[in-house]
Task: structure prediction
Amino acid sequence: MPPKLLVSVRDPVEAQAALAGGCDVLDIKEPAAGALGRATWNVMADIARTTHAQSPRCRISAALGELADWTDASSPPSVDQRTACSMLSYVKLGLAQIGSRENLAQRFATVAASINQVASPQLSWIAVVYADWQLAEAPVPQSVFTLIDSLRANSGIEFGGVLVDTFTKSERRLFDFMSHTELSDWRQAAHERGLLFAIAGRLRTSDLPRALAIKPDIIAVRSAVCGSGDRMNAVTESAVTAFRAALGQ
Result:
């Protein structure tokens, strides 16, 4: 079975294009804000409403930025935050510029609690491994699984999957930082924990033979389905359709 296709979008117009092109998971992010740039809550809510109206069964995920950006997770949730979170299936939070701080699990649990209180009971968290973790000043990849195990056991946080992505969005892509063997090992570690395994990192159709050989559950893209292959341009229906066809779907 080919992997599911996740497409990241920044507004309702892009969401319509991604859905029409046949994406399986609709992901919300603001590319101008970084690898996991968080859109505003009102934009998230608008995209979620559009997705539910056009494709009610499509799962929605959202990037919540980097843990280091969450300096205060205790503020009362806005109406838009409540609306958006109630319609999300997955959320992901990066660990850039965190390093190996001792209070990592506690900080993550605090942010997760603030989201979970207004989210659907079915919401799952996606742990993020940065392939270029040294450039991201993120924890070493192996420690992310230790974090997952700790948060599951001590904080009751529900994880649904692991995403391997790149923090730097330059010409270098996923396979410039991680080998087939390393990625296969991460997939096995994820599956041993009952988690989905997703890969991203400026993947192109030319990368698909290597990507498919890893047998991920999800392949996540943005730049590959944007005009001229530029992640800052708009997602187009034709590019999503073409990428989906290249996946063998």
About this structure: Residues 174 and 201 are 5 Å apart (CA to CA). DSSP finds ten helices and eight strands in the chain. The radius of gyration is 17 Å. Strands lie at 4-9, 25-28, 59-66, 90-94, 124-130, 159-165, 196-199, 218-221.
